[in-house]
């Protein structure tokens, strides 16, 4: 393995933690004898082009510094290649790092962990989900939660995370069951009504909401959580249980396992790793061992 390592940095992650975290991470890698090159794009498109160029040039590893959005961007560059991914998790949610047992919001410790893994050649083969040509590591969300995202992204006030609280209240007021068409693997297409459907390669989204609580990153299967038609009162009862991972015992919740799932519904957007993918219908497939993760 080459000693040239690429730091892939989001300077705005975690209110500036991304830029600050790059320094101790780079220090740990250089102290271990690696040559470190930093990539910071002008925007997401430019950053991805630069990351792919580094991978194509034979970098020894791509190390994403930021939150789940930065990890998601890095996946588009390294998935399906022999280039391993390191993660310095300093974002708001950090669900991918949590799912893989990596240090969270401790860039010095994460940098040392990446350096040790590179020196020892320790990698873990991890499954990824794929929709079209888009890879994801944690959860593909659709339904109530994606509509909250849609509404929040359209709002200009209030600012910050509070706007998503306001968006959730607005979506609760407009809550209606969503008619879905769903197909698992090669089974028949079924028509169901649901409040939301989450397709989990990893277990959590939204900064620790364990929506697909028993999902395993290397079993070749998604855990698909279906929350059936709910009243506002029922949904408010179920949602707090998601943080504890106890919601699958609720009668409105069912969990399915499949390697491929197709979802179709009118006026519903899919979000994967917290990033907008596009409108349904879409088909998600698991790709076993698509990522070499430094652990």
UniProtKB/TrEMBL annotation:
It is an enzyme of class 2 (transferase). Its EC number is 2.7.1.107. SUPFAM superfamilies: NAD kinase/diacylglycerol kinase-like. Pfam families: DAGK_cat, YegS_C. The keyword Cytoplasm does not apply. Its cofactor is Mg(2+). Coiled coil: none annotated. Residues 1-135 form the DAGKc domain. GO terms for molecular function: ATP-dependent diacylglycerol kinase activity. Keywords: ATP-binding, Kinase, Lipid biosynthesis, Lipid metabolism, Magnesium, Metal-binding, Nucleotide-binding, Phospholipid biosynthesis, Phospholipid metabolism, Transferase. It comes from the Bacteria. Belongs to the diacylglycerol/lipid kinase family. PANTHER family: LIPID KINASE YEGS, SPHINGOSINE KINASE. This is Diacylglycerol kinase.
């Amino acid at each position: 393995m080459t000693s040239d390592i690429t730091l892939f940095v989001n300077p705005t992650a975690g209110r500036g933690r991304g830029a600050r975290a790059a320094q101790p991470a780079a220090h740990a890698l250089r102290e271990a004898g690696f040559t470190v090159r930093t990539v910071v794009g002008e925007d997401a498109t430019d950053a991805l082009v630069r990351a792919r160029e580094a991978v194509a040039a034979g970098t020894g590893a791509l190390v994403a510094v930021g939150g789940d959005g930065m990890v998601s961007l890095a996946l588009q560059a390294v998935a399906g290649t022999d280039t391993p991914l390191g993660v310095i998790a300093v974002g708001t949610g950090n669900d991918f790092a949590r799912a893989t047992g990596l240090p969270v919001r401790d860039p010095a410790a994460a940098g040392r962990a990446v350096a040790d893994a590179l020196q020892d050649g320790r990698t873990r083969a991890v499954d990824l989900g794929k929709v079209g040509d888009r890879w994801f590591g944690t959860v593909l969300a659709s339904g109530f939660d994606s509509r909250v995202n849609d509404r929040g992204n359209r709002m200009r006030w209030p600012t910050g995370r509070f706007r998503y609280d306001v968006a959730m209240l607005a979506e609760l007021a407009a809550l209606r069951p969503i008619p879905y068409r769903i197909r698992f693997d090669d089974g028949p297409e079924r028509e169901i009504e649901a409040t939301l459907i989450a397709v989990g390669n990893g277990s959590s989204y939204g900064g620790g909401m364990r929506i697909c609580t028993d999902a395993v990153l290397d079993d070749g299967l998604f855990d698909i959580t279906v929350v059936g038609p709910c009243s506002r009162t029922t949904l408010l009862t179920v949602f707090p249980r998601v943080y504890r991972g106890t919601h699958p015992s609720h009668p409105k919740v069912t969990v399915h396992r499949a390697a491929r799932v197709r979802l179709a519904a009118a006026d519903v957007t899919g979000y994967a790793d917290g990033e907008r993918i596009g409108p349904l219908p879409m088909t998600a497939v698991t790709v076993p061992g698509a990522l070499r993760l430094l652990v």
